[in-house]
């Protein structure tokens, strides 16, 4: 009887230790793009040109910097709404800028 009691006590002590060793934890880290670069904006070629700021674009697992540039605004648009990073389930997603 004492032997069975010892086995039950031992099993009661070892069982939680064995079960805790079976648990697995997984950590997923989604890293966004690096901070935007500081750009020196040159003088506009004309008053009709609008500065389109530089930004990072994701290519596979890497982020590629696209330099800023001047562009003539289309006739019916006056302002440029810059692109931005939106968080999704799969990680950061680049939303392209647009004319408004």
From TrEMBL:
Keyword annotations for this protein, in alphabetical order, are: Signal
**InterPro entries hit by this protein:** YXWGXW_rpt
Specify the signal sequence span.
Answer: 1-26
- What Pfam family is a match for this entry? WXXGXW
PROSITE patterns per record: PROKAR_LIPOPROTEIN
**Full protein name:** BcpO-related WXXGXW repeat protein
